[in-house]
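sanity check this record:
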Amino acid sequence: MKIAVVAANGRVAQKVVKEALDRGFEVKAFGRGAENKTAASDYVQKDIMDLTKEDLAGFDAVVDGFGAWEEDKLDGHVKTSQHLCDILAGTDTRLLIVGGAGSLFVNPEHTAVVSDGADFPAMFLPLAKAQGEELAKLRERNDVKWTFISPAGDFQADGERSGKYILAGEELTLNSKGESIISYADYAIAMVDEIEKGDHIQQRISVVRE
């Protein structure tokens, strides 16, 4: 398979690049910085907002690894994913987005989300709101084969690669130990599995360590 990873120098995106390469995928990485921090030999320095239809033509899938924590950059979550949607609209190329856990539902009625909880860390609220808005905008698109993949609540950058995960849906899911946890490495496995054999078109899915 031939995939593009944008904002590829991000820590999650780097894991996705490596996982895909290890499976024999052809990977082209796009990053804003001059330095290629990924394992891909094909790297292009280009900001997401400068990408064109020509840049992303011919790929089976595009992975959006954009992430921002600074409050003045949080609107980039909506802007960048919508720009990618505009580029890929009407094509067969899938768009897979590294999402957040704050927007996962915590009740069967889907009226309450993780970030509504009293114990949700205040410092993460702006990010959760931004990624929730990103998902809401994606739901309005029926012209793009998008998939939004939310990690578990405890998303561990340096966690082990267990190779095992539970594929879940829109609700916060706990494993047999009552945990909502996953490593970047296992998340990358789930992302590449979804590219390879998934069919969750225009859906949000989530993953948690088994």
